Amino acid sequence: DAGVIQSPRHEVTEMGQEVTLRCKPISGHDYLFWYRQTMMRGLELLIYFNNNVPIDDSGMPEDRFSAKMPNASFSTLKIQPSEPRDSAVYFCASSLGSSGNTIYFGEGSWLTVV
Amino acid sequence: AQSVTQLGSHVSVSEGALVLLRCNYSSSVPPYLFWYVQYPNQGLQLLLKYTTGATLVKGINGFEAEFKKSETSFHLTKPSAHMSDAAEYFCAVTRMDSSYKLIFGSGTRLLVRP
User: Alpha-carbon torsion A97, A102, A108, A113, what sign?
Assistant: First the structure.
């Protein structure tokens, strides 16, 4: 089975531009997570969805960030406008069922804002 | 609130030596505990997890961890390090209830010397 698929793998953009990161979770999984990884702050949970509905977005850093999940097989994380401090690796992950189940991570989208 | 503390941001061992990566957690309710590994430029991969039952958990690649409630610890061990074990290791905790927030420690980078 295909794992969690993220695109783009790498993106370099200029400050002020809009960035859209995309994620396809594992088929059949009902939870989807967006994490951000930086040297300073480590791995942070930004938002997660259950059955396409946002459950907890308390980790979203500010209004410039938004996430959507229009259907069970697709999610986006958007940053508008982007800033250099948004440079990080953004991971999408998915899982099936309850909180003890394994969360499967994509390979990440490496974002650099210059 | 839950938290995870990983002692030592870097651990260096010789090939063939014992690997011990330390993790202590804080949780007001029974936890689920995880160890993930991240190889360079890749996503996170589950090594092992503790949910319920046996407190000694065996994972992939010869790793194991023991849940010790009295010590609030979940240390990761491997009897004999291999060069391919060089990676970053993350301990994580989540709640044994409906909440699905997986909280990560700051990570420990394992270096294996030939």
Answer: positive
For chain A, the helix, strand and coil percentages under 3-state DSSP, each to the nearest 5: 5, 55, 45
Q: Given CB atoms, is B90 within the 8 Å cutoff of chain A?
A: yes
How far is Cα A39 from Cα B89, in angstroms, rounded to an integer? 14
Sign of CA dihedral A56, A62, A68, A73: negative
Give the lowest-confidence range in A1-10, A36-45, A53-62, B93-102.
Answer: B93-102
Bridge pairing between strands A42-50 and A31-38: antiparallel
Beta B10-14 vs B108-113: how paired, if at all? parallel
* Residue with more model confidence, B1 or A72: A72
Distances (CA, A) of B14 to B21, B109, B111: 14, 14, 8
Strand A19-24 to A109-113 pairing: unpaired
CA distance B111 to B88: 9
Name the amino acid, one letter, at B58.
K
Q: Using CB atoms and an 8 Å cut-off, which of residues 24-63 of chain B contact chain A? A: 32, 36, 41-46, 49, 51-52
Average pLDDT, chain A: 94
pLDDT for residue B97: 62
- Give the dihedral sign, CA A94/A56/B109/A107: positive
* Regions of chain B where pLDDT drops below 50: none
